[in-house]
């Protein structure tokens, strides 16, 4: 009987011990998966969070570099375009069919300087020559007046005065619409009647005084044209009627 009780006690002890062992295994089994999931989730979250940040930073850097490159290149392209346009729009030099010479002579005004209007004395050159046989381009059908106008536009007086340097030799004329003719009134601020009632401008071609106005005389290559200021209706410059 005692033996039976002892066996029963041993069986109870074994069962209790077995239950304790099984309980520890269950705890171990339960804890391990939880720990694994937590670590795995944490690592996964960190990886997901870090990677987009790096990618976004790289994208922003690339974009800025492209924009900077475009801004630096643009002015260079514009500069080349402007230079080409200037070259293309440069006006070509005028081509003439021939050349003549033009002289503007007011020595009679210098010789009568005491009679000329005081306001005009400063416009009379020291040597009495406003233009000294300057070469002028001409085209077929152009006149002595055309040659004079071009000579005044392209040259300065022998005194090299400030007005001529800025504007060329001053020339004033009257245009008759009815006859389509031009009459020279003043050159270099010296006008008809500035040295008496018989004073004014006349012209010659190759030493001869034509019987027509300067705007009606067609010049030829090689002609020598002289515009004279006379104080005595041509008598003081060799004009005979």
Which class of secondary structure composition applies to the elements? alpha+beta
The ordered string of helix (H) and strand (E) elements is HEHEHHEEEEE
CATH class of the largest domain: Mainly Beta
Cα distance, first to last residue?
186 Å
CATH topology-level name of the largest domain: Ferric Hydroxamate Uptake Protein, Chain A, domain 1
- Sequence stretches where pLDDT stays below 50 over 5 or more residues: 20-92
Main sheet properties: 4 strands, mixed
> Which architecture of the largest domain does the CATH hierarchy give at level 2?
Beta Complex
User: Any idea what the shape is?
Assistant: rod-shaped
Q: Classify the beta-strand content into a percent band.
A: 15-25%
The count of strands amounts to 7
The averaged pLDDT comes out at 76
| Residues in helix, % | 40-55%
Q: How large is the count of helical segments?
A: 4
Radius of gyration, in angstroms, nearest whole number:
55 Å
Order of strands in the sheet with most strands: 2-1-7-6
Number of domains: 2
Structural description of this entry:
With 241 residues, the protein is an alpha+beta fold. The chain has 2 domains: 1-72; 98-237, Ferric Hydroxamate Uptake Protein, Chain A, domain 1. Helix content is 45%, strand content 19%. It has 4 helices and 7 strands. It has helices at 2-88, 107-111, 144-154, 162-167, and strands spanning 98-105, 129-138, 171-176, 181-187, 190-191, 200-205, 224-230. A hairpin with a 4-residue loop joins β3 and β4. Residues 20-92 have low confidence and may be disordered.
